[in-house]
Amino acid sequence: MLSRTAKKFIDKVIDIEHTELFVILILSIIVLSAGAASHLGLSEAIGAFLAGLLLSETKQRHRISEAIKPFQQFSTAIFFVAFGMSVDYKHMGSLIPIGIFIFVTTSFSKVFGGYCIGKTYALSKRASLRLGFSLIPRGEFSIILAGTIAMSSHAPYPLKSLTGVYVLLSAILGSILMKEADWFIKWFFEGKDKGHPQMGGHSARMKVE
Q1: Using CA atoms, how far apart are residues 94 and 78, in angstroms rounded to an integer?
Q2: CB-CB contact of 117 with 128 (8 Å)
Q3: Is pLDDT of 180 > 70?
Q4: Sorted alphabetically, which InterPro entries does this protein's record hold (predicted)?
Q5: What is the distance between the alpha carbons of residues 163 and 148, in angstroms, rounded to a whole number?
Q6: Per-residue CA distances from 101 to 122, 134, 150, 166 (Å)
Q7: What does the pLDDT average to over 114-130?
Q8: At what angle do helices 157-179 and 92-120 cross, to 10 degrees?
Q9: What residues have CB less than 8 Å from 194, skipping those under 6 apart?
Q10: What is the pLDDT of residues 33-52, one digit of tens each?
Q11: In the chain, which residue ranges form alpha helices assigned H by DSSP?
């Protein structure tokens, strides 16, 4: 009920033809949502995310998407600059093994989750695995939450460094894994196919004997 009322209100507020004023209103809604979340003790990222969910339900969602495109790359760059400055690199070396473990664990869970989703929609095994691999570097919101932790003045330095390690691994290794997904999938299925004929031949020999 509340979301419907808010959606109708926002539809009326942003129903203007002036492009510059339209962009200002959209950015104001995002900033106000982030500020409200911060005032309630939540992350600003969560407030902005909820604002995005609300704006996606409005009649102007396509226009909003086009209007904020120029700000996406710029704001992302600013975020990662602030994130990088908040990380203490003195502790990163000792935390690399833990970061690798977390990255491997989350990557397997993403591949498995994507595979299950693909099979649910009747995709082939290869297509389902490809979907799973595509999810590995797709952790933007997780990175934002990690960045929020890293930039928090209350978070301990080892935790900040660990988030830095995880973000670097996700950005570098995640992109490589997604790019080489076809090679991994081909290698996986070729390995299985090579194993099956041997088993079949062994069974046939057993029957002849």
Answers
A1: 27
A2: yes
A3: yes
A4: Cation/H_exchanger_TM, Na+/solute_symporter_sf
A5: 10
A6: 32, 19, 19, 10
A7: 87
A8: 50
A9: none
A10: 888 888 887 767 778 878 88
A11: 2-13, 19-39, 44-55, 61-86, 92-120, 125-134, 140-150, 157-179, 181-208
Q: Is the pLDDT of residue 24 over 90?
A: no
* 7-25 average pLDDT score: 80
Write out the two tokens for 39: 């005032």
pLDDT per residue over 56-82, tens digit each? 778 888 888 888 887 777 776 777 777
CA distance 33 to 129: 37
CB 38 within 8 A of CB 47: yes
Give CA separation, 104 vs 41, 119, 142, 174, 194, in Å: 32, 22, 15, 10, 27
Report the Cα–Cα distance between both ends of the chain, in Å, rounded.
74
Q: 3-state DSSP call for residue 155? A: coil
Longest dimension (CA), the chain: 85
**Which of these, 68, 53, 44, 71, lies nearest to 147 by C-alpha position?**
44
Q: Token digits for 126?
A: 């290869």
